Amino acid sequence: MNKYTVEMLDNECWYGLCVQDGMQFPIDASSNYAADFTVNYTSNQVCPILISNCGRYIYSDTCFKISAKGGIITIETENVIELICAGSTLKEAYLEASKEHFPPKDGIPPREFFETPQYNTWIELLYDQNQADILNYAEGIINNGYPAGILMIDDAWQKYYGCWEFDPERFPDPKAMTDKLHSMGFKVMLWTCPYISPDSPEFRELLERDLLTKTEAGKPSLHEWWDGYSATIDLSNPVAVLWYDLKLKKLCAQYGIDGFKFDAGDARFYVNDKISLGETSPNVFSELWAKFGLNYKYNEYRACVGCQGYPLVQRLADKYHSWDGRGMASLIPNILAQGIMGYAYTCPDMIGGGEWSFFRGEGLSERLDEELFVRYAQCAALMPMMQFSAAPWRVLSEENAMLCLRAARLHIQYAHYILSLAEQSAKTGEPIVRYMEYEFPKCGYERVTDMFMLGDRILVAPVTEKGKTVREVKLPEGRWAYLGEKIFDGGKTVTVDAPISVLPYFEKR
């Protein structure tokens, strides 16, 4: 194991590395941070890069152990670490790192991801995915004034893991369902994962053909994940990949499915997978899972190692229905981390939070924080993508449901601009959501993570604290239009009214 140390410069701040640690970044001379990413145990994206506001970056080909204390960064790895001076700002360092290590590839995800809200059936139906209720959900979207967009049918549409066929009891005519959704204007995606239910016909077939990963003892690796115990397809084996690909392509051909939500695939689930066709590691398996999704234009990922620059949709991990760092407070820091790590095509978690246990059981109306739900929708409105699952018209008062619809319409209002930023990113590699420090270096924004720039034109300052109805914003130099109307001169801190009906944002004039 090699050990490297980097001494921080005066007022140097470092960004990147781990999306789920976004609230702990940037790390600086006051930080006491330690983590081991040789296996990604987080539920989001990780990549071995740190980028500095002083124009430097640290890069490795594989993930590493890191500590930062007393102004010293210490990295332990079996590979080589590069420390590159690429300029004097965060933007200069990022652009050089992107150019050298993760240049943009192969265009952008389909425009529907950016232009309209997405809809996911998970929170609405949980493990009771079924044809009738999915169609009712889609009709509710249209009847309540939302535009058709991408509709993701989540886990439990299939018979079991590895048998990627609709359960006939719950989906008596899946082709008719998909045709109906298409006629309403929706694109249809299905949930899938790289796991195989043990002792199933598919398990026995793949075992006989040596297409499953194995333990050191040479037995099929049965690992525990949130849905029990499963075996794993050997994604390092082209024959296994082809087997899986043919299963999914059959769904596209037979039912008109447009793409897939590629869930699970977290590196932490591969720690016991010791034998495979190719030389792999848990992180490499997670990377191979992401690259598998490149076969499908309509895709979504939550866990990933590397693979920046590819046209893959990268969602934030499931958030709690809470204001703290497990929920609302983490949205902006984490999506900022995604951007500076090279993941431009990002989506916050399902509005209101996608951690399913909160929405389960009786008494939801008493537990639900409607203010939180609305502020969540507003926070997502001017991000690259926004995704609904719990139906606002079902769980909220009529007034607050209308505020969520207003947030969706704001996203649509700026869809052309967001799409143009995605197209720009496909050429330059630049993030769509940017740290204030990225656009306005050396202006005192290096530790600001509660607001962001959408491209270089729109400053977004969501309310992320319960009960707060004003927002204090330090404006950069120049002239800024608040909500497209009132003009403020920059170079100073302003306080604006931000009742629950308002998402504070400023457009550069």
Write the SSE topology:
Layout: E1 2-7, E2 14-18, E3 32-36, E4 45-52, E5 56-60, E6 65-69, E7 72-77, E8 81-85, H1 90-101, H2 112-115, E9 118-120, H3 122-125, H4 131-143, E10 150-153, E11 158-160, E12 163-166, H5 174-183, E13 187-192, E14 195-196, H6 201-208, E15 223-225, E16 228-232, H7 238-255, E17 259-262, H8 282-292, E18 298-300, E19 304-305, E20 314-315, H9 331-340, E21 346-347, H10 364-367, H11 370-381, E22 387-388, H12 392-395, H13 398-413, H14 415-428, E23 433-434, H15 436-439, E24 452-454, E25 458-460, E26 470-475, E27 479-482, E28 486-489, E29 492-497, E30 505-508
Parallel strand pairs: 4-19, 9-10, 9-22, 10-13, 13-17, 17-18, 20-21
Antiparallel strand pairs: 1-7, 2-4, 3-6, 4-5, 5-8, 6-7, 11-12, 14-16, 15-16, 23-24, 24-25, 25-30, 26-29, 27-28, 27-30
Helix pairs in contact: 11-13
Mean residue pLDDT: 97
Count of alpha and pi helical runs:
15
Distance between the termini: 52 Å
- Can you tell me the number of structural domains? 3
CATH homologous superfamily title of the largest domain: Glycosidases
Compute the CA-based radius of gyration: 23 Å
Query: Class by helix and strand content?
Result: alpha+beta
Strand percentage lies at 15-25%
| CATH arch. level architecture of the largest domain | Alpha-Beta Barrel
Quickly name the level 1 CATH class of the largest domain: Alpha Beta
Unreliable residue runs: none
CATH-defined topology of the largest domain: TIM Barrel
How are the strands of the largest sheet arranged?
18-17-13-10-9-22
- Helical amount among residues, as a percent range? 25-40%
Overall shape: globular
Reported for the largest beta sheet, the result is: 6 strands, parallel
